[in-house]
Amino acid sequence: MKTETTIQGLSASLNPARAARKIIGFVPTMGNLHEGHLNLVREARKLCDVVVVSIFVNPIQFGPNEDFDNYPRTLEQDQHLLAEVGCDIVFAPTVEQMYGNKPRLTNISVGGITNDLCGEQRPGHFDGVAVVVTKLFNIVQPNFAFFGQKDYQQLAVIRQFVRDLNIPLEVIGVPITRAEDGLALSSRNGYLSAENRAIAPTIYQSLKTAEAELHAGTQLADVLANIKATLTAAGFVVDYVEVRTPELQKIEEFDQDVVLFIAAKLGATRLIDNMQVKYTAV
Amino acid sequence: MKTETTIQGLSASLNPARAARKIIGFVPTMGNLHEGHLNLVREARKLCDVVVVSIFVNPIQFGPNEDFDNYPRTLEQDQHLLAEVGCDIVFAPTVEQMYGNKPRLTNISVGGITNDLCGEQRPGHFDGVAVVVTKLFNIVQPNFAFFGQKDYQQLAVIRQFVRDLNIPLEVIGVPITRAEDGLALSSRNGYLSAENRAIAPTIYQSLKTAEAELHAGTQLADVLANIKATLTAAGFVVDYVEVRTPELQKIEEFDQDVVLFIAAKLGATRLIDNMQVKYTAV
Questions:
Q1: HAMAP family in the record, alphabetically (chains A, B) (predicted)?
Q2: pLDDT (tens digit, 9 = 90+) per residue, B48-75?
């Protein structure tokens, strides 16, 4: 496994693969890798000849009061983990390598689906994601790109701009990886105190309960209210509990497949999770 | 020469060239081709193995009161001209082929350099250009893309987002092609009455005069005022007469290379032109 820190170095490393028309798979990450990321790499390994993983903590997707400076950077440990799951090339550029010295004037925004859910609390966040992911796509030029369904809204945003801009690759969404107690894996879980870590799986439990309620015919509004009550009682400060179509459109009745979304704070740590619920007539 | 009207057809036509690692040159146009466009194709022909020209009147770069519906569409004539100058593939998609049935949610905006000059009178115009050019770049995936310097601001916008988004191609700016009397060639010249066509070269003459004045040490503000007075006296309604650095930054003194910009209406027809003026100490 190679590590490249410059765009030029990465191009040189990828050129033989491109010339041989090999299938290139790409997993963009911000590092601090856990089993969720490694499952993305394993998925890429299955489908592709060459697997590239980027590790880049992208400043422009963090808000002014968010944790950019303190976001965990664990490159050496990440490299060991990636070598074990068969990554071929790690791309770990500096901020200067990615954004240069001259000011960036270009922005990419995805209307409609970025204004609510996580977008409401994090203005500009998805623009920052769209810009960096587009840059990385243009640098790596993969055939397939792999993203976790845990960041469901992010995945939907990426699918949307890939389609709207005719970016020549296929986006693959990979199911959420969970701890044994159901907590969705996230780099931010490391911020939780032991006590809060024990409470955190309530999010997943409340989603499972909601799924059962929906299938039993409970009204959608009541199901959402129950999640909120459960989380609040457990000590969370709820950001949102929402339901959407798989394409993130609002929905009033459980009359098709839906996705349930939760964002909630436990102490200073904001956790998100979601669950796709299949429609079944009661 | 082939003509392709679908993205899939174009990909099929380009695949052998891509597999053979041939150099692909791309000239995006809105059709109604004149010598200016043909010079772009000749430039591409010199540098590239395969030359693709797109003909697509892009609805999203026209304002509500602009001439989208009446913009001249002359595909057959364009095909004849392109065959003569050695174009290999014409890509002439429908609006539906480019934008599909589902709503487009993604926008690309280039801050700073799109808000004045032509951007002030045409809000959203350069966003529409950025989106369609990005789409075409992703569809054609050329090594080189050719644009005329006549649309200098457009060229600067394209260079900017190509750099900001790491789009893997080189942008080539090609000098303005002029009629014998100096009028910059443009599809919109065809809208001019015979009388106005005779007046139109005043734009170029005023730029040449301005260049001489600058080199003779006339103050920048006076030079711009002289252009305005000349055009107004000739019967133009001036949109703007401006001076910028080559990167479109505002400038107060003639102390480096500059570009002079004119946009002016003659009857209902809006004409633009520009001239790069080398700095020379007086």
A1: PanC (MF_00158)
A2: 999 999 999 999 999 998 889 999 999 9
- Direct distance between the N- and C-terminal alpha carbons of chain B, in angstroms, rounded to an integer: 52
Q: Is the pLDDT of residue A205 over 80?
A: yes
Does B32 share its domain with B136?
yes
Q: What is the per-residue pLDDT for B281?
A: 81
**Degrees, nearest 5: CA angle A260-A262-A266:** 160
Is B92 in the same domain as B151? yes
Report the run of H or E that residue A82 belongs to, with start and end: helix A75-84
Pairing of strands B258-266, B269-277: antiparallel
Per-residue pLDDT of B202-261, as tens digits, reads 999 999 999 999 999 999 999 999 999 999 999 999 999 999 999 999 999 999 999 999
Cα–Cα distance between B191 and B74 in angstroms, integer?
A: 15
Answer whether residue A76 is part of any domain: yes
Q: Which of B174, B208, B237 is the last residue of a domain?
A: B174
In this structure, are A140 and A235 located in the same domain? Answer: no
| Residue A65 pLDDT greater than 90, yes or no | no
Confirm whether B215 is a catalytic residue.
Answer: no
In order of A60, A142, A158, A233, B55, the CA distances from A123 in angstroms are: 11, 29, 17, 29, 38
Q: CA A133, A134, A138, A142: dihedral to nearest 10 degrees?
A: 60
Structural domain of residue B9, as residue ranges?
2-174
- The reply, when asked if residue B121 is annotated as ligand binding, is no
A238 and A124 share one domain: no
Domain end among B119, B153, B174: B174
Measured between CB atoms, does A8 come within 8 Å of chain B?
no
- Claim to verify: residue B203 and residue B63 sit in the same structural domain: no
In DSSP terms, B209 is beta-bridged to none
User: Is there a single domain that holds both residue A69 and residue A101?
Assistant: yes
Q: Cβ contacts (< 8 Å) between B165 and chain A: which residues?
A: 106, 108, 131, 134-135, 138
Q: Which of A100, A105, A108 sits opposite B106 (nearest CB)?
A: A108
CA nearest to B224, candidates B241, B211, B209, B200: B241
Residues in chain B, total: 282
